[in-house]
Design goal:
The chain is α+β, with helices and mostly antiparallel strands. The longest helix has 19 residues.
């Protein structure tokens, strides 16, 4: 290929690359992307107070908890129109009957949604006739000034295990970037930095008590503190918090403290 032809080819390639970077006029933008919400009302009734139902819109998929089970499906949002795929994937836990009834009604409402409205920090879903199906309050994405109880942690042996009965592990995220809590026997402190969904937890220090009871408490403490240090991302889902490693493995899971 001679020099002139080479220049022509390079010019065409450069033009194609530039065109790929320019937004297409009129292209659909998803206004719900990267937002999280907590159910406030369902079919005109207040949501049950002893559980939280959540929804998160991310990358063309919505997910959350129906108050008992985790669920996910795909969706598209364009203008005020909302289309939620009726093929909802869900875990299969059983909960108290009122919670299960609400969960069933909630999933049914989701799949009936045809339009939506976001106003004043509230999301409302409507069916094709304009009937209000559900309302949601926007969930804060921050960890500052929140307190949590550990429900599970990575033991460093490629397994997530539950907390030993008779012990309580906690995490308090301060507004000043300080993280503290109980590791089951000793108190611990660390620093943390959270931005977007990323988190970095600094070196962890703790008191030096020894606890023989219950059995395994000290091993649990060591494994939990090591798991905290591996956290690279976090995700809030109503009253649930997950810390995950850089490769997506679960480091620790939490429930919001009362």
């Amino acid at each position: 290929m001679n020099t002139r032809n080479t220049l022509i080819v390079l010019t065409i390639v450069a033009g194609l690359l530039l065109a790929a970077c320019v937004p297409v006029p009129g292209a659909a933008v998803d206004p719900l992307a990267d937002t999280s919400w907590v159910l406030a009302t369902l079919n005109g009734q207040a949501a049950l107070s002893d559980t939280q139902v959540t929804i998160r819109f991310e990358g063309g998929r919505l997910s959350g908890t129906d108050g008992c089970n985790s669920y996910s499906t795909s969706y598209t949002a364009d203008g005020v129109k909302l289309n939620i795929d009726k093929n909802v994937i869900s875990t299969m836990m059983a909960c108290a009957e009122p919670i299960m009834q609400q969960a069933g009604a909630y999933i049914a409402a989701l799949t009936q949604a045809a339009t939506y409205k976001v106003e004043g920090g509230q999301l409302a879903l409507f069916d094709a006739s304009g009937k209000l199906l559900a309302t949601f309050a926007k969930q804060s994405a921050g960890l500052s000034d929140t307190s949590w109880i550990v429900t599970g942690y990575n033991n460093g042996q490629q397994a997530v295990v539950s907390v030993i009965a008779g012990t309580e592990l906690t995490a308090d995220f301060g507004a000043d970037g300080a993280l503290s809590g109980s590791a089951g026997c000793n108190r611990y402190t660390a620093t943390y930095e959270a931005a977007g969904t990323s988190i970095k937890i600094g070196p962890v220090g703790s008191t030096r008590m020894a606890c023989a009871d219950p059995a395994g408490a000290m091993t649990q403490e060591m494994q939990f503190l090591q798991a905290l240090a591996t956290a690279a991302t976090y995700r809030l889902d109503g009253d649930r918090l997950e810390l995950r490693t850089a490769d997506g493995a679960l480091a620790a899971s939490f429930i919001l403290a009362d």
